[in-house]
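Recap from last week: sequence in, structure out.
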Amino acid sequence: MDDFILIANPISGKGKAKAVAEQAYTALMADGCNGEIKLTTGSGDATRFAQEAVSNEIQWVIACGGDGTLHEVVNGIATVPDVILGLIPCGRGNDLATAVRIPRQPQQAIQTLFTGKSRFIDLGYVRSEKGSEHYFTTITTCGYDTEVSRRAAARTTPFSGTASYVYAAIATLFQYECPSVRIEGDFGVYEDSILLAATGSTKSYGGGFKIVPDAQFDDGLFDVCIIRPVSSFTVLRLMVTLFWGGHVSHPAVEIHQTRSLKIETDPPVMLYADGEPMCETPATIEIIKHGLTVLVPS
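Predicted structure tokens:
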């Protein structure tokens, strides 16, 4: 029986992920492990590979790529007990890898597969009123940052990494219209227009924007950042402070904690999580405490 499956997106990291995945595979096999490497060719492949692996009782699933690849892998293993997720970050954002301290340097990340320890982290779950279900590991976005995620994911920007999100944010800024929302959580109800609402179990998205800077990935709670409509100039100022979480002191910003969140908007908008499209509002977001096991540095 195989010990592991290594799922890689060969175009992640400007094509670097394929070579990194092959290095990891060679190292694992040389160490006496038995497994296989699977390269994705399109959307949904990583989820399918992960589902097939756990159906074959493989309990170690390794994702090599960016947040999109990781997101698909997690949606293939989310409901299966006793599966350990390994991470080799090779993408634009790598926000979960950053949260759990996986090194960005490929050789160091590969070394974590041999010397790391298992750790429980929280898992997010999104359910739309139309019945679609998705899992996520970092932050769900609603509003302005959703449109930014859409533009960044479309890869129409001339930049990569965090710079692609900055470019998309500026390109979106002067065209965006704030929706009216009703957001209900453990903290009560917010009912008004918003610039954005970000709900996360990790601190950052977009490769380093600390939208919920005090979030903990294993406390069983989401941190929610709601920003009311502000001028375009103020948005630009807030974007700078997102790198260290300084936006939380602005009077247009609210931070809350909750175990679940129900979001309704007018008009309906698409929710994104881990930088990937989830579903349209209305939707419910819930946290599954310690719902995922990840291999992290010792």
